[in-house]
């Protein structure tokens, strides 16, 4: 059948339909396959370009030429690449991991200390029995400046103190004291406060001679310290707190043989001590730091005493003296491993410490004059009454990359006679991050 047989009108209508369908198919094909879309012709007239040049597709990762070639790069304010940053590694920090305070404050070494409690002196009216013995609580009274810092810390505490010739047991001999202390310190309130618990022990606190026998407590007084930061900045810190010394340790029992009848003196450990303190830490730029404490140790009650012999028992009590402690510590960095040190157990830093410690009594000693029928008069009082004790401490602070601190030091008394608690002291301290 030809076009004439189909009809002219029908032929025009069919051609129109074919053209419309062809345009529709071409449009659908372009949408389904955009990569086949023809590239628009470049404008024949120059255009004024405002802003930076178009993105260079060859140097931009992820750039799609078909879709992004007409986009302009965002304006650049600096051609330098941003500085690379890396997270802080706790293995490179000091023992106070992730400290809330400045790095200079966080690296300060704790004060080493010098502490030993005043002893009691016992004598009869004729001066035939003259002996000294430690007060209750395992030959110690709690002191904040003993392996401690004004900065709250998270750590386990292990202390060893050797006091050479700390107790005069008779006119012809003296005893040394070995003291061990276990404890921990834990921070809270975003490291602004901490609570610290310590328990001291004394090894072999007994003494035996022909005229005099002493049985002393080996367990000391459990102390609890609450410490808080008052104010701080990048260079300095001021803290305050309170130590509560509880009478968990036993007392001392003395047996006097060179009297008319054997006399037993039993001195109990009943006193609770409250010790408020202020502390400061100053760490200017450089390798030196300064730290100190001011503390008052106040006994809240007296210790009971008994005198016993064959004739009976006499009971009395003795109030310990209030003490004032002033402590200052200077530290200087002697060695630093540098940022390249990676070993978790290698030595990170070594610091030298020099400290000055002053202890004084704020009141006269309580004096007990008592006895029994057979032994009528005995005197018990603090040895030396008013005391002014000055000691110097020299120490070495070694810190590992994992934050563990090993500290060794010696203490030398400056004052003499009654203002001298011992002849020499050796210290070993270990702090392990909690």
Cα shape: elongated
Query: What proportion of the residues form beta strands (DSSP E)?
Result: over 45%
Sheet/helix structural class: mainly beta
The largest sheet, given as strand count, sense and whether it forms a barrel, is: 12 strands, antiparallel, barrel
Please tally the β strands and state the result. 22
Which CATH architecture is right?
Beta Barrel
Global Rg: 41 Å
Helix content: under 10%
Intertermini distance = 102 Å
Q: Please write the CATH class name.
A: Mainly Beta
Could you please say which CATH topology applies here?
A: Lipocalin
Helix and strand pattern: HHHHEEEEEEEEEEEEEEEEEEEEEE
> What's the number of helices?
4
Low-confidence sequence ranges: 1-6, 35-39, 44-73, 83-97
- Placed side by side, the strands forming the largest sheet appear as 3-4-5-8-9-12-13-16-17-20-21-22
**Mean pLDDT level:** 79
CATH superfamily: Autotransporter beta-domain
Number of structural domains: 1
């Amino acid at each position: 059948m030809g076009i004439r047989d189909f009809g002219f009108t029908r032929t025009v209508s069919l051609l129109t339909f074919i053209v419309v369908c062809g345009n529709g198919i071409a449009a659908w094909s372009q949408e389904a396959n955009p990569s086949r879309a023809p590239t628009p012709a470049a404008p024949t007239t120059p255009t004024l370009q405002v802003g930076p040049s178009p993105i260079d597709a060859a140097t931009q990762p992820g750039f799609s030429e078909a879709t992004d070639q007409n986009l302009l790069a965002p304006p650049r304010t600096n051609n330098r690449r941003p500085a690379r940053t890396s997270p802080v590694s706790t293995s490179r920090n000091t023992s106070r991991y992730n400290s809330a305070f400045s790095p200079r404050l966080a690296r300060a070494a704790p004060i080493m200390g010098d502490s030993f409690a005043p002893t009691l002196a016992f004598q009869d009216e004729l001066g035939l029995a003259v002996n000294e013995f430690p007060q209750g609580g395992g030959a110690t009274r709690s002191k904040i400046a003993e392996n401690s810092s004004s900065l709250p810390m998270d750590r386990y505490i292990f202390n060893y103190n050797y006091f050479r010739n700390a107790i005069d047991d008779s006119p012809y001999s003296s005893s040394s004291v070995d003291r061990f202390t276990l404890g921990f310190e834990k921070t809270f309130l975003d490291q602004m406060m901490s609570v610290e618990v310590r328990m001291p022990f004394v090894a072999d606190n007994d003494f035996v001679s022909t005229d005099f026998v002493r049985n002393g407590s080996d367990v000391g007084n459990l102390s609890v310290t609450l410490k808080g930061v008052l104010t701080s900045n990048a260079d300095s810190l001021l803290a305050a707190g309170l130590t509560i010394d509880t009478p968990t340790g036993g007392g001392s029992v003395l047996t006097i043989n060179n009297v008319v009848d054997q006399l037993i003196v039993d001195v109990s450990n009943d006193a609770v001590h409250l010790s408020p303190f202020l502390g400061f830490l100053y760490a200017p730029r450089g390798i030196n730091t300064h730290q100190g404490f001011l503390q008052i140790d106040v006994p809240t009650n007296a210790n009971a005493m008994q005198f016993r012999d064959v004739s009976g028992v006499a009971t009395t009590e003795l109030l310990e003296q209030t003490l004032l402690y002033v402590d200052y510590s200077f530290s200087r960095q002697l060695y630093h491993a540098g940022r390249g040190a990676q070993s978790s157990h290698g030595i990170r830093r070594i610091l030298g410490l020099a400290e000055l410690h002053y202890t004084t009594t704020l009141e006269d000693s309580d004096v007990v004059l008592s006895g029994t029928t057979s032994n009528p008069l005995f005197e018990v009082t603090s040895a030396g009454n008013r005391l002014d004790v000055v000691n110097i401490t020299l120490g070495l602070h070694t810190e590992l990359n994992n934050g563990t601190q090993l500290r060794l030091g010696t203490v030398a008394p400056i004052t003499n006679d009654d203002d001298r608690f011992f002849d020499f002291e050796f210290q070993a301290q270990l702090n392990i991050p909690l």
